[in-house]
Amino acid sequence: MYPEVRLHIAGNWRTTSESMPILNPATGAEIGRHPVATRQDLDEALAAAERGFKVWRAVSVVDRSKILRKAANLLRERADTIAPIMTLEQGKILGESRAEIMIGADVIDWFAEEGRRVYGRTIPSRSDTIVQISAREPVGPVACFTPWNFPINQAVRKLAAALCTGCSVILKGPEDTPASCGELVRVFLDAGVPGDVLSYVLGVPSDISEYLIPSPVIRKISFTGSTPVGKKLAALAGLHMKRATMELGGHAPAIIFNDADIDSAVSILMSNKIRCAGQVCVSPTRLLVQDSVFDEFAGRFSKAIGDVKVGNGMEPDTKMGPLVAARRISAMEEFVENAKENGAEVMTGGRRIGNQGFFYAPTVLANVPTSAKIMNEEPFGPLVAINRFSDEDEAVSEANRLPYGLAAYAYTRSLDRINRLSAGIETGMLSINHHGLALPEVPFGGIKDSGYGSEGGSEALEAYLNIKFLTLKM
Questions:
Q1: What is the pTM (predicted TM-score) of this model?
Q2: Does residue 281 carry a catalytic annotation?
Q3: Catalytic: which of 281, 377, 392, 462?
Q4: 276 is known as an active-site residue
Q5: Rounded distance, CA 64 to CA 342, Å?
Q6: CATH code at position 425
Q7: CATH number for the domain that contains residue 86
Q8: 337 and 467: one domain?
Q9: Mean model confidence pLDDT for the chain
Q10: Exactly one of 114, 175, 247, 378 is catalytic; which is it?
Q11: Are residues 328 and 190 in the same domain?
Q12: Are strands 121-123 and 451-452 parallel, antiparallel or unpaired?
């Protein structure tokens, strides 16, 4: 079921002499190997991107749109083939894998249409003999760096936005989950994207980024990943005057007020916490619950998440799969032990499940002091901290305490409070009484240490376009 993983460079799928193992997180067993790109491979990818940009930018927006629409349809047709591949290498349950693929197709469709609407404008002149035009042009070849947690949905936003605006792309794929991301690349190529326009490379991440970003061929980078790595890449991009989109880590607060619909809050927050085993940048991490409903909410939430069936994502009754790798188990254990040392109560979970694969029980930590590691660093796993608050100002202060600002959530029936929260919470995305993030047509991005730029909505196209001003005397 697991395909051979290859690089794609200059229209050819290829292997290299060096390779690294790919593990099934449900068993810990090796299921394949991925090639490691050499310096020569990267040079060839850069040359292809330079050639491909000259060709692709000349393709009309209508024809580019048609190719992307075909790619979206191919992705849907192949969903049942690609989904098991994603589950094998990433661990998420099969239903989540298939849903990710179908949403990815919707993303392509949306950008296929939005790319047809990259308008310039005519600026009224001070003289009737002067014409002034602001035009938009593709920025050039783009280097994209995409993570392992959503091997299609994170990559597809970058690829679709770049391709619809006329840019060529070198995609550095996720080494933990390379096959499903590679199948996405294959979909675009089979739909008609020229081989020089889209390359796919894998290897040692730092070696690839430190070689591609300084290259004069690359004019923009897009990175999704941790804040520490993002800061290094942003600094490197800045050193070489490269435009950058950074979608970095988060530490999402969710505020539950005493007038909230508790049934809805428990259900939505629980399902979003176990999604992808909590390995989601917008996963709710700090649950701030008002005093009068704290005991009810904490008890019901802990029971709901404690009852979740954890197992192999290929099994139909599994609700949460394993973590992606052994390193994530070690991280969870460190977070939990540190919280306990700081006086937190483990309401449920707090342990590894079994000794095969990388399973960790969904875990609720209550009454966690702000000195604990989990209250300050993104756990990126099925861990959640629940704490009390007395009044709105206290909750907002805690929500804004950290340098992150990607996503935040709130549950309340008060319109006055919603208005205050909308103005007061420092975040790139705020969802109230539901989780309505990451649709193709809406902005997706953070502020502060969570990055800058958008990977959704019409805002996502801006970073892939240059503005050229033309003034003409008649």
A1: 0.97
A2: yes
A3: 281
A4: no
A5: 56
A6: 3.40.309.10
A7: 3.40.605.10
A8: no
A9: 98
A10: 247
A11: no
A12: unpaired
